[in-house]
Design a protein that fits this description.
The protein has 21 helices and eight strands. It is of the alpha/beta class. 55% of the residues lie in helices and 8% in strands. Helix 7 links the parallel strand 2 and strand 3 (180-185). The strands form two sheets. The chain has a five-stranded parallel beta sheet with strand order 2-3-4-1-5, with helices on both faces.
Length: 516
């Protein structure tokens, strides 16, 4: 805007000066007698140039959105990635499922003879960090296809028509450069369910996407791959066969997949001979591929920080703590009374979890990390896909045991159980609303009924958590001597390993009572 004003002022000044010079040419005065004809011509020429430049500047719609004057393709620069299935560890079932699509792109004639059509769309859904983008790149790499990447948010604009135009541009480009893979990450940004309250521009963008996916020419080998963390948010029209024909769940890896992922991410790292990838995989239950990659990288950084030539077991253990529990707080200013409370709290968790055998306790610590003043690292002894009601109740009992220990020892409770109560409440809610494990019977309750029957559901959840809390109180009362032993050791050395915890329990084996 400032530039335009300046050009305008120079143009006006030039016009005024040119007018005077033109007048002086035919009606000479003494004012401009020193100006030659060459000077006059130069001033007239410069004035003309500035006027033309100003007119061109003015014809540019300055109030138009930047996206219209500098239109995106709706995708990043086309690329043929070098990624292949060799770079994707684990996910063997998914890779096998995608082989058909890859073979169709590479050898489309044999499928066309049988009247088969290429799947138009593949939708990857699941938690973040599980390898959805990597899988899409691998499909493009295996087929030597053009990989067109776009994020769902790139199509969302407040200006009407921009998102729809970007969708058209993206699909036109894909058809020109076939065979090609269109990958739309976070597709829920444009594919969310339509309703009366939704944004008109977003609806137009979604309608254009639906039209483009329907309008594919069967002779063109173009496959669209979408990725989302929230399948439940997507519009039904987007999910139907003919658009996204295949829905593939990409979940967190199991122990075998975690081993393969860790092997990939430690290939170029110097490891000590005593490191067991299986043991690390066992300690990282429930973590995604991205988190495992982060652990391997953190272990390498820690080893460099300590001036080591190789990464050892301690580096990996510290990296796991760093990722799961957060950054260690150096020189924390914690009162002695608070430290004792944290020691009792964490000892309560460890004691009850050990007795009920809900999870294997890996480490207990009262060294602050992140926002936590202390923590207990636990992981299951084996991969589990089904949980009984008794096991879920035991998990809740272990979660509320920290607060129960505070109540028994100090006669009052603190704010330290915030995260424990959140997790316990979530399990209790799933037991009542999803698993039919309450007095309401074998029913599943959706969100609508949860909102309208909250008091009834809340009462059922409270009963479950209260029962678990009473059980935790009983277990701790019966094994108070072990609780104090663990807490005293924590106060001395600030952390206890699983081996040290086993030694403590061996001393009191005859006295350790288990209440169920």
């Amino acid at each position: 805007m400032q530039k335009k004003k300046m050009i305008f002022a120079i143009s006006i000044l030039g016009i005024v000066l040119s007018s005077f010079l033109f007048y002086d040419k035919y009606f000479p005065t003494n004012i401009f007698h020193h100006i030659t004809n060459g000077d006059r011509f130069l001033i007239w020429a410069l004035t003309t140039i500035f006027i033309i430049y100003y007119i061109q500047l003015d014809s540019n719609p300055q109030l138009a959105p930047l996206a219209l004057s500098n239109e995106k393709d709706g995708a990043k620069e086309n690329d043929k990635p070098n990624t292949s299935f060799r770079d994707v560890a684990g996910l063997e079932e998914i890779k096998e499922e995608l082989q058909e699509t890859i073979d169709f792109i590479n050898n489309s004639q044999k499928y066309t003879k049988m009247g088969a059509k290429i799947p138009k769309g593949i939708l990857f859904y699941g938690p973040p960090g599980t390898g959805k983008t990597l899988l899409a790149k691998a499909v493009a790499g295996e087929t030597d296809s053009t990989f067109l990447y776009a994020s769902g948010s790139e199509f969302v604009e407040k200006y009407v028509g921009v998102g729809a135009k970007r969708v058209r541009t993206l699909f036109e480009k894909a058809k020109k450069e076939a065979p090609s893979i269109i990958f739309i990450d976070e597709i829920d940004a444009i594919g969310a369910k339509r309703n009366l309250d939704s944004n008109n521009e977003k609806d137009q963008t979604l309608n254009q996407l639906l039209a483009e996916m329907d309008g594919f020419n069967t002779s063109e080998t173009v496959v669209i791959i979408g990725a989302t963390n929230r399948l439940d948010l997507l519009d039904e029209a987007l999910l139907r066969p003919g658009r996204f024909d295949r829905h593939i769940y990409v979940g967190n890896p199991n122990i075998k997949a975690r081993e393969k992922i860790l092997e990939v991410h430690t290939t170029n790292k110097p490891l000590c001979k005593d490191i067991s990838i299986h043991e690390i995989a066992n300690k990282t239950h429930g973590l995604s591929g991205a988190e495992l990659a982060n652990i391997a990288n953190e272990a390498a950084i820690i080893a460099v920080r300590k001036n080591k030539n190789k990464i050892d077991k301690d580096d990996f253990n510290e990296a796991i703590e760093r990722v799961l529990a957060g950054l260690e707080v150096k020189n924390p200013s914690i009162l002695l009374k608070e430290k004792k409370t944290v020691a009792i709290h964490e000892s309560g968790h460890a004691l009850v979890s050990k007795i009920l055998k809900t999870d294997m306790v890996q480490k207990i610590s009262i060294i602050p990390r992140g926002q936590a003043l202390g923590y207990v690292l636990k992981f299951p002894e084996e991969e589990r896909y089904l949980m009984t009601k008794k096991e879920l109740m035991s998990k809740i009992t272990g979660l509320v045991a920290g607060r129960a220990a505070e109540q028994i020892v100090f006669g009052e409770i603190t704010t330290g159980a915030k995260d424990d109560l959140t997790k316990a409440t979530q399990i209790a809610q799933e037991m009542v609303c999803s698993y039919g494990m309450s007095s309401l019977g074998n029913i599943s309750i959706d969100e609508y009924y949860v909102k309208n029957s909250f008091n009834i559901i809340r009462e059922e959840m409270r009963k479950i958590i209260d029962e678990c809390y009473e059980n935790a109180i009983k277990i701790i009362e019966d094994n108070k001597i072990i609780l104090f032993h663990i807490a005293d050791l924590l106060m001395k050395q600030e952390s206890i390993t699983s081996e040290e915890l086993d030694e403590i329990f061996k001393q009191y084996e005859s006295n350790a009572n288990c209440a169920t």
